[in-house]
Design brief:
Elements: H1 3-6, H2 8-37, H3 42-64, H4 67-72, H5 76-91, H6 100-112, H7 122-132, H8 141-149, E1 151-152, E2 159-163, H9 170-175, E3 181-187, H10 190-196, E4 202-205, E5 212-213, E6 218-223, E7 229-231, E8 237-239, H11 240-248, E9 252-263, H12 269-278, E10 279-286, H13 289-295, E11 297-304, H14 313-319, E12 338-339, E13 350-351, H15 357-366, H16 369-381, H17 392-401, E14 406-408, E15 414-432, E16 438-456, E17 459-463
Helix pairs in contact: 2-3, 2-6, 3-5, 5-6, 12-14
Length: 464
C-alpha cells in the first residue's frame, strides 16, 4: 500500500492548514482595504465586504476539515481546540478593526498540526498505522451478535443478504445464522474469498467496483468497508468507505436494512448526507470495551427510502462524531429493532470481477444442460427397429455405417461386421481409329464395395 494512503489524515490536515492560513491572511488584507475605501468608494467597499465574508466562510470550511482527522491521529485535545476555534470564527464580526487575535489563534492551531512539524511524532504515526491495518477490519462477532438480535427476518421468505467486502464471510454468516436467508459476498482478496465459499451461498471474487450485482434485490446489507484513501482512474483521491456506501446502497430494496460499520471519526458530513438522503429511521450505536478502544467503530443502521432532501439532518448526524458519550453502546440495541421487508426477490445478477472456478463448478452441477445433452446421447444408443423391412441399398448403408456390427441374437446366433473397401474395376472397349485399324481402350473405375464378414457356428463367411 502506498505510504500516503496509510497517513491520509496527515494529508487532509496539511491541505486544510494551508487553506486556513491563506484565508485568514486574506481576511486581514481585505479588512485593511475596506477601511481605505469605506468613505471614498462605497461600491468598491461593498465588494470588498462581500469578499471578506466569503473568505470567512472558506476559513470555517477549512477549519471544519481538521477535528475528525485529529481524532483519527489520537490528538483529542487539539481536536477539541479546533472545534472551539470554529465556533469563535463563525461568531467573529468581519467589521472588527483588529484581526490580530484571530490570526494568532488560527496560526497557533496550524503550528500544532502534526503534518506541519519537521518530524511527525512516532506516537501519531503509530496510531495511524494501527488504525489502518491494511484497511481490513473484520467485524467482531460478539458485537455482530447484538446486531443479529436487532434484526427480525420475514417468515416464509428467503431473505437476501449482501456484504460487498465480506472478508472470510464470518460476519455475514453470523448475521444470517438461524434464519431462512441466502448470503452473497464479494471479496477482493482471493485467499479470504476462497475461505468464504464454505460459509456463504455465493461469493464473487475480485473488486466490488468491477463486479455485477442486481440492484433492489437485497433485504439487508452488511457494509464494513476498508477505511483507506484510494486513487481514482483520473488520479483523484476518494475515501473508500464513502465510495462503498454511495455505490452499494442501491442493491437494497425499498425498506431494506443498511448496517454500516465505520470508525466514528469517518462520520463526516458528506457521508451523513448520503445516509440522510437515502435512509430513514437512522440510529447510531458504538462498539464497546476494548474493541472500541482499538478501532473506534460505530454501527449506523437505517431503512432505505426514496431519495429526498435531508434538510439539516446530515449536520445533526455528523455532530454525533464529536461526542461519543451521547451514543449508546451496541449492547443496548433492542431485540427486533429493525424488521426486514416481507417481499420475495430473486438475485438475477451476481458476478465477481474475477473468474471463479468453484462458482462455475457449482453452477454446472446445478445446470440441466448437461443432463439434456446426455439424454440425447442415450436416445442415440437405444435399440431402434425400422417400421418396414429394409431394402438392399439401405442394408448396405446400415452395414457400412457400423450400426449392425457385433452379435446378432436370433434363431441362428452369429457375429457380423460390415465394412466398405475400395475396388478398382477395369473394362475394355475395342474400336477402329481414323485409319481403320483396330484399337483397344481400357477404362479403370474406383468404386466402394460393401463386405460383410460373418462368424457362425459352422465357420467364417465373407459376403460382398
Amino acid at each position: 500500500m502506498p505510504h500516503e494512503e496509510k497517513h491520509y489524515a496527515l494529508d487532509v490536515l496539511r491541505d486544510a492548514g494551508e487553506k486556513a492560513a491563506v484565508s485568514v491572511s486574506e481576511m486581514a488584507s481585505l479588512r485593511e482595504k475596506l477601511d481605505a475605501y469605506i468613505e471614498k468608494d462605497r461600491k468598491r467597499a461593498k465588494n470588498i465586504h462581500t469578499a471578506l465574508k466569503k473568505q470567512k466562510a472558506e476559513l470555517v470550511s477549512s477549519l471544519s476539515e481538521m477535528p475528525l482527522p485529529l481524532l483519527e491521529a489520537g490528538m483529542e485535545e487539539l481536536s477539541a481546540y479546533a472545534l472551539k476555534l470554529i465556533s469563535s470564527v463563525k461568531a467573529f464580526q468581519v467589521m472588527t478593526p483588529d484581526y490580530s487575535k484571530l490570526e494568532g489563534a488560527v496560526k497557533n492551531l496550524i503550528s500544532q498540526l502534526p503534518c506541519n512539524n519537521s518530524t511527525v511524532s512516532a506516537a501519531v504515526i503509530g496510531r495511524l498505522m494501527n488504525r489502518v491495518k491494511m484497511g481490513y477490519y473484520p467485524t467482531d462477532l460478539e458485537h455482530l451478535a447484538h446486531i443479529r438480535r436487532a434484526v427480525s427476518f420475514p417468515q416464509g421468505i428467503t431473505a437476501n443478504l449482501l456484504d460487498p467486502c465480506c472478508g472470510r464471510g464470518l460476519a455475514l454468516a453470523a448475521l444470517g445464522e438461524g434464519a431462512d436467508c441466502a448470503t452473497y459476498g464479494v471479496e477482493i482478496d482471493e485467499g479470504r474469498a476462497e475461505d468464504a465459499l464454505s460459509r456463504l451461498t455465493r461469493v464473487g471474487f475480485g473488486s466490488y467496483f468491477h463486479s455485477h450485482v442486481s440492484c433492489g434485490a437485497f433485504h439487508a446489507m452488511l457494509l464494513n468497508p476498508p477505511y483507506l484513501s484510494m486513487l481514482s482512474e483520473h488520479g483523484g483521491r476518494y475515501r473508500g468507505e464513502k465510495k462503498f456506501l454511495a455505490e452499494a446502497f442501491p442493491h437494497l430494496m425499498a425498506g431494506g436494512l443498511l448496517i454500516y460499520i465505520i470508525p466514528y471519526y469517518r462520520l463526516t458530513q458528506d457521508v451523513c448526507r448520503v445516509l440522510c438522503e437515502n435512509f430513514r429511521d437512522i440510529t447510531v450505536w458504538k462498539f464497546y470495551g476494548e474493541e472500541f478502544a482499538r478501532f473506534r467503530q460505530i454501527a449506523v443502521m437505517g431503512v432505505r427510502k426514496e431519495r429526498e432532501k435531508c434538510g439539516g439532518a446530515d449536520g445533526q448526524l455528523a455532530a454525533l462524531a464529536y461526542d461519543m458519550d451521547f451514543v449508546p453502546a451496541l449492547s443496548e440495541i433492542p431485540d427486533g429493532r429493525y424488521a426486514l421487508p416481507e417481499q420475495k426477490k430473486t438475485v438475477s445478477v451476481f458476478k465477481g470481477a474475477k473468474f471463479n472456478k468453484a462458482e462455475l463448478a457449482a453452477q454446472l452441477a446445478a445446470s440441466q444442460g448437461f443432463a439434456r445433452l446426455f439424454e440425447k446421447n442415450s436416445i442415440d444408443a437405444m435399440e431402434k427397429r425400422p417400421l418396414l423391412p429394409l431394402g438392399i441399398g439401405q442394408i448396405g448403408l446400415v452395414g457400412g455405417s457400423g450400426l449392425i456390427n457385433g452379435l446378432v441374437d436370433c434363431g441362428v446366433p452369429h457375429i457380423i461386421k460390415g465394412r466398405i473397401v475400395k475396388e478398382t474395376r477395369i473394362r475394355q472397349e475395342v474400336g477402329l481409329n481414323a485409319a481403320g485399324e483396330s484399337v483397344t481402350t481400357i477404362y479403370e473405375t474406383n468404386v466402394n464395395k460393401m463386405v460383410f464378414n460373418v462368424l457362425t457356428p459352422e465357420g467364417f463367411r465373407s459376403l460382398s
